[in-house]
């Protein structure tokens, strides 16, 4: 089960003064030598108002981006749900409501040992208890009829960098002066929410992991701190899908078939755009997709093995990770052509004077470097 964008948004909405469900905040500032330089332990609502607004912004960013790219649903392997596993440790941390100093120090030590970052950073950990409102038959929330309390912890890891050198206006002296450089906590690069919020309740079998850069997912941190299986990044999913198509079609990998695959996936995404759940492509889904796109049956004889070799333990691709719905791209060693996906029919491959050529229909006007030509 995965946390979808609607569920992410519901938790994200709690990071406001009106809805705040954060009970406690703890933090640890780590320098470039991996030394703990300062620690914070407070009731969140005891912070000055200006500080809470800045923290709210950090927390909202920790639940931002696209599910499947920046926000990755990760399950615990069975061995990590046994006594002594990472799930047990995270549950203890949550159940302590971040008041157990020894658990906090152990968590910080685990992060420092496994987080790959050469500069200064700030580990922020919060404990929250969201009183989940019930829902009426028409779908409206009933805030006075709570069904459950979603108790959770969330971690945000933020780079801390010196502000840029420059000149500034000093209102007290009415002068332009050299700017004083200080250390600024920036937007989070990494974070996680535990347990996941699924079907409006806690799912202790999974974690929602955040990465600002989809291709930099901190494998040591995921494996040793969270204990989860390493997910395929968006880029890995795309290259694995491309490998399956190439291996399945072999020498019969034609332009028309690849275009059909792209068009069919875009159609699936468009049909599901109102759904909060991302479109997944499991092994049967990909097989049906290839058949629908014109791949002959004999080419699919080894498909099951090719799919498992490419995807490993991951059960499915996310459709949004394997195609770009905004552009259809053709590339040679010297030329790159980007086409509106809805008009990929304008491009054909023909043999002219013994050479394979791309032929693009020009129905209206043609511009070259912004200049209309005839």
Question: How would you describe the overall organization of this protein?
Answer:
The chain has 374 residues and is of the alpha+beta class. It is globular, with a radius of gyration of 25 Å. The strands form seven sheets. Strands 1, 2, 3, 4, 5, 8, 9 and 12 form an eight-stranded antiparallel beta sheet that branches. Strands 6-7 form a two-stranded antiparallel sheet. The chain has helices at residues 5-12, 49-62, 86-95, 101-114, 219-226, 234-249, 255-271, 283-292, 303-311, 319-322, and strands spanning 22-30, 36-43, 71-75, 121-135, 141-162, 167-170, 175-178, 183-185, 190-194, 196-198, 201-203, 206-211, 280-282, 316-318, 328-331, 336-339, 347-352, 355-360, 366-368, 371-373. The model has no long low-confidence stretch (mean pLDDT 91). The termini are far apart. It is built from ten helices and 20 strands.
Rg, Cα atoms, Å = 25 Å
Average pLDDT, rounded to a whole number, is 91
Main sheet overview = 8 strands, antiparallel
Count of strand segments: 20
Task: Report the portion of residues in β strands.
Answer: 25-35%
Task: Report the span from N to C terminus.
Answer: 56 Å
Estimated structural class = alpha+beta
Q: Roughly what percent helix? A: 25-40%
Poorly predicted runs are none
């Amino acid at each position: 089960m995965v946390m979808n964008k609607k569920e992410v948004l519901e938790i994200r909405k709690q990071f406001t003064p009106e809805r705040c469900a954060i009970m406690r905040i703890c933090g640890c500032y780590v320098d470039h030598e991996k030394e703990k330089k300062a620690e914070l332990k407070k009731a969140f609502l005891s912070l000055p108002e200006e500080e809470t607004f800045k923290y709210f912004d950090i927390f909202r960013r920790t639940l931002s981006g696209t599910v499947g790219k920046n926000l990755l649903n990760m399950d615990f392997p069975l061995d990590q749900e046994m006594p002594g596993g990472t799930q047990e440790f995270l549950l203890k941390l949550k159940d302590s409501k971040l008041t157990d100093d020894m658990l906090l120090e152990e968590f910080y030590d685990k992060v420092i040992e496994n987080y790959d970052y050469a500069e200064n950073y700030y580990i922020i950990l919060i404990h929250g208890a969201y009183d989940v409102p019930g829902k009426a038959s028409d779908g409206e929330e009933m805030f006075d009829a709570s069904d459950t309390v979603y108790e959770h912890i969330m971690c945000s890891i933020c780079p801390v960098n010196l502000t840029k050198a420059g000149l500034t206006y000093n209102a007290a002296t009415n002068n332009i002066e050299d700017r004083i450089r200080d250390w600024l906590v920036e937007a989070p690069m990494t974070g996680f929410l535990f347990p996941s919020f699924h079907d409006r309740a806690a799912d202790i079998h999974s974690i929602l992991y955040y990465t600002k850069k989809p291709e930099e997912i901190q494998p040591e941190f995921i494996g040793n701190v969270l204990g989860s299986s390493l997910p395929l990044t968006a880029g890995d999913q795309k290259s694995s899908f491309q490998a399956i198509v190439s291996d399945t079609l072999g020498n019969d990998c034609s332009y028309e078939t690849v275009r059909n695959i792209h068009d069919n996936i875009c159609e699936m995404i468009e049909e599901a755009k109102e759904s909060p759940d991302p479109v997944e492509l499991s092994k049967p889904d990909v097989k049906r997709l290839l058949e629908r796109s014109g791949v002959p049956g004999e080419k699919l004889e080894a498909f099951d093995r090719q799919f498992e070799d490419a995807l490993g333990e991951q059960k499915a691709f996310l459709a949004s990770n394997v195609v770009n719905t905004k552009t259809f791209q053709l590339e040679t060693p010297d030329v790159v052509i980007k086409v509106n996906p809805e008009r990929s029919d304008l491009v054909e491959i023909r043999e002219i004077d013994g050479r394979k050529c791309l032929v693009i229909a020009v129905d209206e006007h043609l511009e070259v470097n912004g200049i209309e030509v005839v």
